[in-house]
Amino acid sequence: RDVAVTGVQTCALPIYLLGYPVDTTIAVASVIMGGIMDKFPRLKLVFSHGGGYACFAAGRWDHGFNVRQEPKVNIDRLPSSYLQAFYYDTLVHNHQTLRFLADTVTPDNIFLGSDWPFDMGPRNPAEWFLQGSGLFTPVEQAKILGDNAQRVFGI
User: Fold this and answer.
1) pLDDT in tens, 71-101
2) How many CB atoms lie within 10 A of CB 98?
3) How much is the pLDDT for 2?
């Protein structure tokens, strides 16, 4: 499938390369800007695709909050301050990007992701994650590989 860009279909932007992370970004932004976390502070949400581009857009969101009125309709603090209220998977396909995610939301908020049953996930998610293990401490690795899921889901 192709994604429509300003009404034009293009094969350069297949939904699985750009569309899904964009959809995830929109979902994160909608939950934040909609005030959902203020209304339901104990709600636990896990976003796939490492939250899409939300962590990369956080600075823009905060700037918009400071200079425009629309973001303040449902929230009264910077949008980026909500990012650590969510959980994310590791499906970013790049170890440096995953490190940026961990630095932004803390390794305590990241779960190992597989993308199963779809074909975009690594064949062995744990092996892929450990290939970038030089970017993560042993404690962070243990959290992401399973300790976080056990803690959050009580398993």
Assistant:
1) 999 999 999 999 999 999 999 999 999 999 9
2) 24
3) 47
H or E element in which residue 93 lies: none
What are the structure tokens assigned to 50, written together?
């490492």
Query: Which neighbouring-strand residues pair with 89?
Result: 111
- Residue/partner pairs of 34-38 with CB below 8 Å, 24 or more apart: 34/74, 35/74, 35/75, 37/82, 37/85, 38/74, 38/75
CB distance 102 to 136 below 8 Å: yes
> What three-state secondary structure class fits 121?
coil
Tell me what the mean pLDDT of segment 133-143 comes to. 95
Identify how many contiguous H helices and E strands the chain contains and give both numbers. 7, 5
Sequence-distant (≥ 6) Cβ neighbours of residue 25 within 8 angstroms? 51, 52, 53, 54, 57
Give the 3-state secondary structure percentages of the chain, helix then strand then coil, rounded to 5.
60, 10, 30
The Cα–Cα gap between 114 and 90 comes to 8
